[in-house]
Design goal:
Elements lengths: L10 E4 L7 H4 L6 E5 L3 H4 L2 H8 L5 E4 L8 H14 L3 E6 L1 H15 L7 H4 L12 E5 L11 E6 L4 E6 L7 E4 L9 H19 L7 H23 L4 H14 L13 H13 L3 H15 L5 H12 L6 H18 L13 H13 L4 E2 L5 E2 H10 L2
Helix pairs in contact: 4-5, 7-8, 7-9, 7-11, 8-9, 10-11, 11-13, 11-15, 12-13, 14-15
The structure holds 5,6-dihydroxy-NADP and zinc ion.
Length: 387
Amino acid sequence: MQNFEFFNPVNIVFGQGQIKNLSTLVPSGSKIMLAYGGGSIFKNGIYNQVKAALPGFDLIEFGGIEPNPRYETLMKAVEIVKKEKIGFLLAVGGGSVLDGVKFIAAASLWEGGDPWKFLAQRSKFTVTQALPLGSVLTLPATGSEMNGNSVVTRFSTREKLSFYSKAVLPLFSILDPTVVFSLPEKQVANGVVDAFVHVIEQYLTYPVNSPIQDRFAEAIMLTLVEEGPKVLTNRTDYDAAANFMWAATMALNGLIGAGVPQDWATHTIGHELTAFHNIDHARTLAIVLPGIMQVKRENKKEKLLQFGERVWGIKTGTADERIDTTIHRTVEFFESFGIPTKLSAYGVGNESITAICDRFTQRGIQGIGERGDLTIAEIDEVLTLQL
Ligand code: NZQ
Ligand code: ZN
């Protein structure tokens, strides 16, 4: 096990009916901005629950945060926050609304010029302060409800970049599994696959003698494999929804990544596919991951074999055969949720691979992944395999 620091102060308030406790969680006396997405919260009744839970609070609403939240939209919210002297931000939505609110919280107190800097030049500019925020999560997937990450898209330049700051860890997040009941099939599928790949990014690297971390990770993946299909076929299965929701949160709250190497190459490449082609985040991961597993099969050999055995039950054959079957089973799992894993299914061809690789070259990237050795030539190979 490697040395680590694990800090996670987010107050998770979990279970059916918990939205009604909002007034005890929001700091009293603050002027609140209630931020939401494209309007699903009006159709499924979550908006009404939130409003009913905050009687007498001074509240301004900001709607229209897009999936893959846009810098251009979020900057409008920043203006309002400053003008209205907002003291607390409440995100009601999925990962996009939560990430958007984290950006608004940080950008509102940023004094270093254009806030885009803390994404585009994140090694140089760090976010150290932000307005306090909380969330009512409506879509289990990203883990944003219990982490300090935010991913923002700059629409005008087709860039999708992230930042991390302890300052944007939510004060609290309400996780009521009944929000899953209104999710379209596609978003359940996206949520399961995104959470699964979050675990993979922190697990499928190389062994560092950390059996407890490995087993936490495997428990989350096995839970997603078992519960995901139940949620897909019966959206109102409360226990399946609850287990799916908690698994997705645990997949990216810092716990399983503590003390182990982390990859994140699949996400780094996937974000480019969203930036250029607007493909849903989880779908980009389902495309890229099988290619990474193939190209880095030697690097990741021990963990690939362990993953195959403990998650997919693959115990026979030579090491090479077992790795082939492991990759195959992973692809089958993604596709069983109706998520294609080839670029052609999304109308993306060779020219896009060149554009993505050029972008990494322009950013001066030498290599990514747990060893920093996935080169740009290999990124090309990964994407070409997935054409
Ligand atoms: O916008 P509304 O109308 O609310 O509709 C949303 C949206 O269209 C809808 N939805 C959400 N909850 C619903 C619902 N529809 C019906 N019933 C409900 N209960 O679902 C659609 C997708 O929502 P979105 O928030 O975009 O999805 P998700 O939670 O998958 O978030 C994706 C974003 O998170 C980022 C991704 O890059 C992407 O931008 N990520 C954030 C991470 C983090 N902060 O740690 C890590 C992830 O790897 C990821 O990169
Ligand atoms: Zn993700």
